[in-house]
Amino acid sequence: xxxxxxxxxxxxxxxxxxxxxxxxxxxxxxxxxxxxxxxxxxxxxxxxxxxxxxxxxxxxxxxxxxxxxxxxxxxxxxxxxxxxxxxxxxxxxxxxxxxxxxxxxxxxxxxxxxxxxxxxxxxxxxxxxxxxxxxxxxxxxxxxxxxxxxxxxxxxxxxxxxxxxxxxxxxxxxxxxxxxxxxxxxxxxxxxxxxxxxxxxxxxxxxxxxxxxxxxxxxxxxxxxxxxxxxxxxxxxxxxxxxxxxxxxxxxxxxxxxxxxxxxxxxxxxxxxxxxxxxxxxxxxxxxxxxxxxxxxxxxxxxxxxxxxxxxxxxxxxxxxxxxxxxxxxxxxxxxxxxxxxxxxxxxxxxxxxxxxxxxxxxxxxxxxxxxxxxxxxxxxxxxxxxxxxxxxxxxxxxxxxxxxxxxxxxxxxxxxxxxxxxxxxxxxxxxxxxxxxxxxxxxxxxxxxxxxxxxxxxxxxxxxxxxxxxxxxxxxxxxxxxxxxxxxxxxxxxxx
Length: 497
Ligand code: TXE
Hints:
Elements: H1 8-15, E1 20-22, E2 25-27, E3 30-39, E4 44-51, H2 54-74, H3 77-93, H4 95-106, H5 110-131, E5 139-140, E6 152-160, E7 163-167, H6 175-187, E8 190-194, H7 202-212, E9 220-222, H8 227-236, E10 240-246, H9 249-261, E11 266-270, E12 275-279, H10 285-296, E13 307-313, H11 317-329, H12 349-365, E14 368-371, E15 386-389, H13 396-399, E16 406-412, H14 415-423, E17 427-428, E18 430-434, H15 438-444, E19 452-455, E20 470-471, E21 474-475, H16 483-487, E22 488-496
Parallel strand pairs: 7-8, 7-10, 8-9, 10-11, 12-13, 12-18, 13-16, 15-16, 18-19
Antiparallel strand pairs: 1-2, 3-4, 5-6, 6-22, 11-21, 14-15, 17-20
Bound molecules: ligand TXE.
The site of ligand TXE has 25 residues, from helix 8, helix 9 and helix 12.
EC number: 1.2.1.39
Active site: 270
InterPro entries: Ald_DH/histidinol_DH (IPR016161), Ald_DH_C (IPR016163), Ald_DH_CS_CYS (IPR016160), Ald_DH_CS_GLU (IPR029510), Ald_DH_N (IPR016162), Aldehyde_DH_dom (IPR015590)
């Protein structure tokens, strides 16, 4: 056991009363309507949070709008970048506090919280900071003929889109919010973030650090509350110009529909999927198992880009599943604040119940549960990492996103069939192909329907590489230069002289 001691600042923070963060100050919210934050490793309440009502929603949207038209519009691109860089510094300076809060609320192993919610978040902010001074339009050659010797000239601007509403899931309560916030602020937008009701605390602390970093009041606001009520009201609000959402496919579709109906508000939807990882027969069994663990079991499989469908050459299937079972049984499952923990609990009770019902479904359908497939004893929402051997592509677990530590396996014999198996899904967020034959991989990659295809790797995201879903896995791209299109409105200017 390497269980770490909670920092005094974490204990003090948890004891505070929690609500919202609007226009540079903590706002208590509706004290008669609260919800509890549950530690998924123990099932016990960590804190209570006051719901955001119409009053908080209005205050936050007005503050973001005033900051957009006033102070942030007057802030130079260079200073916007400096603000993001200073926030990155403060995330790192306060990193242990943030990582502990994230692990307590989400069940994420502490090493991952340190690496991703703190370390990677700082890297993403610095990447976006660099873009703030490089957002430009273009000069265009007008194509019309000149009739009387007149001349034409044209160019484009990229105007910031306005107030962005960011709706955040529970799996990376800091990092995914930083993706939205960094993109919005670099482009000159202001933002109102609604964290998941399961992980509402970390962003309240990040907002305080943003103030310390010199980000003007009103530029970043946090409103806590339920999705159906607070989330929808934020999207409905007349000051909302754009919605950026990460979460499940059904909720993403409702969010997208509402945003369209409320005046064609722009949307970026980064949704889930049923991502495939395919191993070609030149890989060794050990290489395949290493790849499967990387692709499917990190952070209890609660990563939208993680693989859930695994395609293995028939000749290797038994050996792969035997070695994978051995590796899973050696995995250290435990308390997220223990530094040696490799796998923690599922993030919340609803998700735990969903995973248990999927185990049941697999049994009813006669899929073979090779390893795991059950809850683990003790308090908290722990389940065994699980291997399921599917009968066919029709098994529920080959089709429905589990978002849990469950790999579902199907064998194949020829590589032509493999491509159609990989594409036999309405989703297309990510996919991976594992082979030492790069020439073959390069020929197969264009035929794989996914927003990102990894070769000999899976789940790794990079701020320089666009990320987002094809097919039903989303609309729009985060990162690279691609995000700029989604946070700015292209304005054309044409003149005759
Ligand atoms: O996600 P939701 P939930 C999957 C995972 C999980 C399931 C449900 O399988 O078991 O989704 O989890 C807000 N208008 N993923 O319920 O509903 C909500 O408050 C506006 C995959 O947590 O997608 C939260 O802030 N907002 C996923 C956010 O949307 C609404 C990550 C995400 O909630 C809303 C998380 C509404 N009508 C869960 N309803 C991924 N692929 O990354 C909810 N919200």
